[in-house]
Amino acid sequence: MGGQACVLYGGAEFSRDTDIAILASNENLELLRAALRVLSARRIALPPFDLQYLVCGHAVHFRCYHPEAMKMRIDVMSQMRGVDPFEQLWERRQRFVAGGDETYNVLSLPDLIRAKKTQQDKDWPMICRLIEADYVGHPDPTSQKAAFWLMESRTPGMLMELSEKFPGLASSLQAVRAAVTYVVAGDVVGVEAELEREEKTEREADRKYWEPLRKELEALRDLGFETEEAV
């Protein structure tokens, strides 16, 4: 659901870690715990690797010490801000096949982009690259795909190009996305200002989402919970 997914979608060339989303259940946690032991993984930060923390939106962080995965970081989540429950994500998942027979289940591109709308600076350029890679990879798009680009593109130039290629579709989406209204009007300055407002709104929503979760982590630290432990 993170950098590795971006690599598979063509938006990145490499990733320093692996982010995974799981269905939060006791059975799944035990399966994942067993896999992490094979990787000689250690939890490297709070919270503890318990179901209650995943269910309320925390991420649990690990680092591997197996010789073939030395220092590789793994982050695990079950709930994400602005993203549908796991069951729906799983229904919409994208499958990639690599190496002939290795299958990777990845967040669908729309879900991945929603998950990337965070307060982190690095995520916003990545959204741009993901959309652009998808655009280049689909020279003969469906109307659904074109609507997705019009709703998610982060650059005035691409929005203007899309509006020229799909004028009827762009016109119909004006009521849904204000940036498209400025595009249809040919107001580049308005488009830029609206894109900036969209990003600022998402960043602030993400900060508010994580604020109570950070306070929970601080409380755990004050109670003396270990910040690092073996799986």
Could you describe the 3D structure shown?
There is one protein chain. Helices cover 52% and strands 12% of the residues. With 231 residues, the protein is an alpha+beta fold. β5 and β6 form a beta hairpin. The model has no long low-confidence stretch (mean pLDDT 95).
List the helices and strands and how they pair.
Blueprint: H1 3-8, E1 17-21, H2 26-38, E2 42-43, H3 51-55, E3 60-63, E4 73-77, H4 86-91, E5 94-98, E6 102-106, H5 109-115, H6 123-137, H7 143-152, H8 156-165, H9 167-172, H10 178-184, H11 188-222, E7 229-230
Parallel strand pairs: 1-4
Antiparallel strand pairs: 2-3, 2-7, 3-4, 5-6
Characterize this entry briefly.
By secondary structure, this protein is α+β, with helices and mostly antiparallel strands. The chain has eleven helices and seven strands. It is 52% helix and 12% strand.
Main features:
two-stranded antiparallel sheet, 11 helices, alpha+beta, five-stranded mixed sheet, 231 residues
Average pLDDT value?
95
Number of DSSP helical runs: 11
Biggest sheet architecture? 5 strands, mixed
SSE sequence, one letter per element: HEHEHEEHEEHHHHHHHE
Strand content of the residues, in percent?
5-15%
Name the overall outline: globular
How many domain units? 2
